[in-house]
């Protein structure tokens, strides 16, 4: 499934130097490079805070997690941050799994990790 990306600078005065990134679809090996390409000018600008709206993101792989981690790192270097809102439950579960095991190599390869994450998200959607 493709990924629709909408990036909007926040006009609200309380959100100066921030932008919202709305993602619709799947963030995976095929779509992550396009998100990186679209985020590059934002990360090179004066924007210090990115808000990722994940309401319509229905799948994420390790490639997508890498884009988020790299964005967060770049923002943190200049005192900013990345925030995530409106996560669907299967996406939240992936974030919780990764956060629960920081720095621990559990999978033999990216392919193995992606297969595991995909299976977990499918099971979660089916209510298991």
Produce a short descriptive summary:
This protein is an alpha/beta fold. It contains four helices and four strands, in the order ββαβαβαα.
SSE layout and pairing:
Blueprint: E1 3-9, E2 18-27, H1 32-44, E3 49-60, H2 62-77, E4 81-85, H3 89-100, H4 110-125
Parallel strand pairs: 2-3, 3-4
Antiparallel strand pairs: 1-2
Helix pairs in contact: 1-2, 3-4
Protein architecture, described:
The protein is of the alpha/beta class. The chain has a single domain, classed as STAS domain (Transcription Regulator spoIIAA), CATH 3.30.750.24. Helices cover 45% and strands 27% of the residues. The chain is built from four helices and four strands; from the N terminus they run E-E-H-E-H-E-H-H. It has helices spanning 32-44, 62-77, 89-100, 110-125; strands at residues 3-9, 18-27, 49-60, 81-85. Helix 1 links the parallel strand 2 (18-27) and strand 3. Helix 1 packs parallel to helix 2 and helix 3 (89-100) crosses helix 4 (110-125). It is globular, with a radius of gyration of 15 Å.
């Amino acid at each position: 499934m493709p990924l629709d990306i909408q990036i909007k600078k926040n006009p609200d005065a309380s959100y100066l130097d921030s932008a919202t990134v709305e993602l619709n679809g799947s963030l995976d090996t095929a779509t992550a490079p396009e998100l990186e390409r679209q985020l590059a000018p934002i990360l090179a600008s004066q924007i210090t805070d990115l808000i990722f709206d994940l309401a319509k993101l229905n799948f994420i792989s390790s490639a997508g997690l890498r884009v988020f981690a790299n964005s967060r790192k770049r923002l943190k270097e200049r005192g900013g941050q990345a925030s995530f809102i409106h996560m669907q439950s299967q996406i939240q579960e992936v974030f919780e799994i990764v956060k629960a095991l920081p720095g621990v190599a559990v999978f033999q390869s990216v392919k193995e990790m992606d297969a595991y994450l995909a299976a977990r998200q499918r099971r979660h959607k089916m209510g298991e």
